[in-house]
Design a protein that fits this description.
352 residues, alpha+beta, 8-stranded mixed β-sheet, 4-stranded antiparallel β-sheet, binds 2-oxoglutaric acid, binds fe (ii) ion, iron, IPNS-like_FE2OG_OXY, Protein DMR6-LIKE OXYGENASE 2-like
Length: 352
């Protein structure tokens, strides 16, 4: 990606070394929990113990790792290989499937988080090859648009492997959604209906070595917008999570057998702030490239997000006003595409 231009430079308070981590004398060691899902292979197993662990993790961190999650390790290896092969193509080749302002899928090397450019290149594809979303961000405009994936010609197995991965990770996402519903004391299928025509997508992140890792971030601090993110990371490390209780940054230790799960804005709103959508960011380094693969489990465009009526009461009135998922999704995509003069949309804008 060459030199570190002005656009990448984080404000001093957001630079990676401003809140020291791994310096035992400053903060106590703490870590996001790891939850064993091996019971998923045994359908008669009582889910309450796991649901309790999930409830704790979602309240305290909004982040956890899962092991024995059922995603085939062979598939994971094939995805890793094909992703690395794709990013290894020439820039000219990759730009043949470059995203544009309207269609967010494809290759992009100028993504911005909160209007600062990220030190990364990405490839995005929808779970559903054609996905319906609002045509514009205008609240009154009810026109819809069909968004389609852009597939590169090389690597030759790319599309097939990507689609296989998306289908497998979707299965896990639905299982997690069920466990999260149960953990809230709700029926297991309470949230599934929001995902009938989902806008979910998979992202391949490539973070090249960075000449000035102390000034830039691979991804600037942000919360994921959707319901759940299922993230595969390699062994390099760099992901950091802000602890709910005090905002301190903690690294997520790479575990090649684990997947990282985090709660997005939708679940924070549905649970009326009981479950937490944590801020996280990615630090880069000057010697090693890093790859990661988030799956963003996103509802259908027509879903209106608001606190679930079962979870609010006179003592716990709704903390958020309703917002339409499709409009939020389209607005966020436009602002991530390039630097804008205005702040991008956040759930805090819908605080009641
Ligand atoms: O690369 C990572 O570990 C996390 C990336 C991330 O947070 C994102 O793409 O939303
Ligand atoms: Fe994220």
């Amino acid at each position: 990606m060459g030199d570190l231009g002005e656009a990448f430079i984080q404000a001093p308070e957001h630079r990676p070394n401003t809140h020291l981590i791994n310096s035992g004398d400053l903060i106590s060691p703490d870590e996001i929990p790891t939850i064993d899902l091996s019971f998923l292979g045994h359908p008669d197993h009582d889910k309450t113990a796991i649901a309790k662990e999930i409830a704790e993790a979602c309240q305290r961190w909004g982040f956890f790792q899962v092991v024995n999650h059922g995603l085939p390790s062979d598939l994971r290896r094939r995805v890793d290989e094909t992703m690395a092969e794709f990013f290894n193509l020439t820039t000219e080749e990759k730009r043949k499937v470059k995203r544009d302002e309207v269609n967010p899928m494809g290759y992009h090397d100028e993504e911005h988080t909160k209007n600062i450019r990220d030190w990364k290149e990405i490839f995005d594809y929808f779970l559903q090859d054609s996905t319906i979303a609002p045509a514009t961000t205008e609240p009154e405009d009810t026109d819809l648009r069909k968004l389609t994936n852009q597939w590169p010609q090389n690597p030759s197995q790319f599309r097939e492997i990507c689609q296989e991965y998306a289908r497998e990770v979707e299965k896990l996402a639905f299982k997690l959604l069920e466990l999260i519903s149960i953990s809230l004391g709700l029926p297991g299928d309470r949230l599934a209906g929001f995902f009938n025509d989902q806008t979910s997508f998979v992202r391949f992140n490539h973070y090249p070595p960075c000449p000035n890792p102390e000034l830039a971030l691979g991804v600037g601090r942000h919360k994921d917008a959707g319901a759940i993110t299922v993230l595969a990371q390699d062994s390099v490390g760099g992901l950091q999570v802000s602890r709910r209780s005090d905002g301190q940054w903690f690294p997520v230790t790479p575990n090649p057998d684990a997947l990282i799960i985090n709660i997005g804005n939708c679940i924070q709103v549905w649970t009326n702030d009981k479950y937490w959508s944590a801020e996280h960011r990615v630090v880069v380094n000057s010697s090693k490239e890093r790859f990661s693969i988030p799956f963003f489990f996103f509802p259908s465009h027509e879903v209106n997000i608001e606190p679930l009526e079962e979870l609010i009461s006179e003592d716990n009135p709704p903390c958020y006003k309703m917002y339409n998922w499709g409009k939020f999704f389209v607005s966020r995509n436009r602002s991530d595409y390039k630097k804008l003069e205005v702040e991008n949309i956040q759930i805090d804008h819908f605080k009641a």
